[in-house]
Design goal:
214 residues; alpha/beta; Glutaredoxin; 5-stranded mixed β-sheet; 9 strands; 43% helix
């Protein structure tokens, strides 16, 4: 079975062959500008996470405090089920779910999508772990992950038929940077990886190895 990073590389290679050069240039420019802006750097190792409760894909309220009482939690923030890189990531984590649970951790994925959209993402990818809806990016903002999409990128997305704001139930066109954290039962971040490049994702193997050594 190919790894997440291998699948991402395959998808990127296909995208480069199909997408117009100007579209590729502008999308790369947006990533570079986000990197250089210094915004949304994310919480760091050693930081305490905020106490939060969010609805899962069925609308049930899930408390992070309750999850942490059972052991370490892997939190992965993703952009939405419309994002092909997010779907590759979620499927890769699903494939490793038994190993994550065997290591004693709970996996939770969070996006700004409304619960109905999260449910669609969960069903589409046959996800058996908790998927939470952070409408308005309130929790992602507390993790210092939220940025505003530039106008030219919004136009590219609209031209591609992607109504990000609609998925999120608002019109703000804000997104979280993809990020992965490992949090211990006291709410302290032990591992943090945040990247301005939305095509990069933390491989599940890396997180599992880390959890095993806690």
């Amino acid at each position: 079975m190919s790894t997440l990073l291998e699948e991402i590389k395959t998808y990127k290679d296909q995208f480069k062959k199909k997408a117009p050069e100007e579209k590729q240039r502008l999308m790369a420019q947006a990533t570079q500008e986000l990197e250089e802006s210094g915004v949304a750097q994310g919480l760091k190792k050693g930081d305490q996470i905020p106490d939060f409760t969010l609805p899962d894909a069925t609308g049930k309220q899930v408390s992070i405090k309750n999850l942490l009482s059972e052991g370490p939690v892997i939190l992965t923030f993703y952009r939405g089920g419309w994002c092909p890189y997010c779907n590759l990531e979620l499927k890769a984590y699903q494939n490793k779910l038994s190993e994550i649970e065997a290591a004693g951790a709970t996996l939770v994925a969070i996006s700004p999508e409304i619960p109905d959209a999260s449910l669609n993402t969960k069903e589409k990818n046959n996800l058996e772990f908790t998927v939470l809806s952070d409408v308005g990016n309130k929790v992602a903002d507390q993790f210092n992950l939220v940025f505003n999409m530039p106008d030219y990128l919004i136009e590219i997305y609209k031209d591609s038929g992607l109504d990000v704001a609609g998925h999120n139930g608002n019109d703000d066109w804000e997104l979280p940077k993809p990020a992965t954290f490992v949090v211990d039962s006291s709410g302290t971040i032990l591992f943090a990886e945040v990247d301005a490049d939305y095509t990069y994702r933390t491989p599940p193997e890396k997180v599992i190895e880390f959890v095993k050594n806690i």
